[in-house]
Model the fold of this input.
Amino acid sequence: MERMRAPSLVAGVALALALAMAACGGGGEPQEHTFNIELEGGQLAGDMSTWQVKADDRVTMIVRSDEPVNFHLHGYDFEEDIEPGDPATFIFTANATGSFPITIHHAAPGMASDDHGAGHAEGIEAPEGMSVSVEAVPDSVSGLNVRISTTNFAFAPEQVGGEHVQGNGHAHIYIDGVKVGRPYSEHYHASPVEPGERTVRVTLNANTHSEYTDGGHVVEASTTVVVPGMAAADGGHGDGDGDEAAETVEAELGRFEVRP
Done:
């Protein structure tokens, strides 16, 4: 009986050794990774917000945006201005381990702008009875809490960028003519917002980002709200003497993680 069991024992030992070697032998040869990062309205177009690789992997990162932004990969100090239709490509070896923020810089809401949100060139005729209203109140900590009420309209974040479905879509929100985001539900928090009287404008947009129109007029709503001044300890956006840093906003898109 012992002789019959010996081959099974040897096979078991060999398997255990193989597993141990695999566990201790590292991750093998460096891998090639290509990441396509799409930005729409200053936000990620997809669900991915963490990009993971291993040390010494080769990375190609392609970044596209539908509006001008400054893209910044911290830790590797890659920073570049990106214009619509002109993607930025970063090719590098992941030789620094850790978790690094990926951010963009854009104009702060409330700063002067001549962009009144003309939106996408071709509108889509809205279903009968579609309408929108907007309320905005200062948040107790920072920015504005915005509530968007609609009729004959359905928020459909899972369809963004897809084919048109009549009556479905999302919203675009502007503060003093500057587009600050794309609400996917009736509630939206806009921050930071410069102190003073601000005009909040919301449009209803189809999955294709085209604005819904009614008789040639954009389906939209606006409201005016006074944003109180903030103490210097909260970021220095109060009545200071023109700190240039307040003219741009840094927003984190996600993390680039490099494991040993």
